[in-house]
Write a structure and sequence with these properties.
three-stranded antiparallel β-sheet; single chain; about 180 residues; alpha+beta; 7 helices
Length: about 180
């Protein structure tokens, strides 16, 4: 989601003492299964009753029967990754890891200023930050003016006083602010 330099997500299950990814990113068939799933099921709401979700899935399969062998192939590969012990443990639980790579506030400030002024920065680091801000999928409304801004802008520029308060409440090792 958003710019690849900002976010990384890994979806999987906790199987006993192990975490097992839903997809093996080195397995082309898993990547194909991901693409087929997003193409055919991407707009579906899975947070409904099981009967409604099952009916919706059956409609997709009726309209696109080629999805079935792709899904079965993925399920077999996933079951192999989980292993017999994991499958029999009855302790499979969904577990997602998300990592955010935040930018330095000074670089965000320079990139945001350039973007607001319609200027392309010469500095490669600032230009990269501007690209990341433009691709941001995690935007929020600024409480003072209601503008929707990228989260890095909100946190690094617009909420500086809040950040100062947080540093006193949650001091970080090595922080000199």
């Amino acid at each position: 989601m958003g710019d690849a330099r900002c976010n990384r997500s890994a979806y999987g299950v906790s199987a006993g003492q192990r975490w097992v990814p839903l997809l093996d990113d080195h397995e082309p068939r898993d990547l194909r299964a991901r693409d087929v799933f997003l193409d055919r099921f991407g707009g579906m709401d899975f947070d409904r009753s099981p009967a409604v979700v099952l009916g919706s899935c059956m409609r997709v399969l009726a309209r696109h029967p080629a999805v079935a062998p792709v899904a079965v192939g993925w399920a077999v590969r996933f079951a192999r990754r989980v292993g017999l012990g994991g499958l029999c443990s009855r302790r499979l639980r969904g577990m997602t890891f998300v990592v955010h790579a935040f930018m330095d506030a000074d670089v965000v400030q320079a990139a945001w200023t350039a973007q607001e002024n319609g200027v392309t920065p010469d500095d490669p680091e600032v230009r990269a930050a501007m690209e990341r801000l433009q691709a941001c999928s995690y935007a929020m409304a600024h409480p003072d003016d209601g503008r929707v801004v990228p989260a890095c802008v909100q946190h690094a520029i617009l909420d500086r006083e809040e950040n100062r308060r947080l540093l006193t409440m949650l001091p970080m090792a090595g922080s000199n602010q």
